[in-house]
Design goal:
It is a single chain. The chain is an alpha+beta fold. It is about 20% helix and about 15% strand. The chain is built from 1 helix and 2 strands, in the order ββα. It has one helix spanning about 50-60; strands at about 25, 35-40. A two-stranded antiparallel ribbon has the order 1-2. It is flat, with a radius of gyration of 16 Å. The relative contact order is 0.17.
Amino acid sequence: MSDDGDDTYGPIDASGPPGAGGPPYAECVLCRKPTEYPRSYRGITLCPVCEWQEAQRTACSG
């Protein structure tokens, strides 16, 4: 890997989607309340409550 400043092939930040710095916030797909994600975020957006409930459902199904 060269040291020319090209970070194309480097570690990927998989910690989660970026948080919104401020409004406008995306709506939760389940309850329509504002989430912590920007409106421009692609994918399923859940508010903190629905996200926690979804994690509980998937953790106990097995």
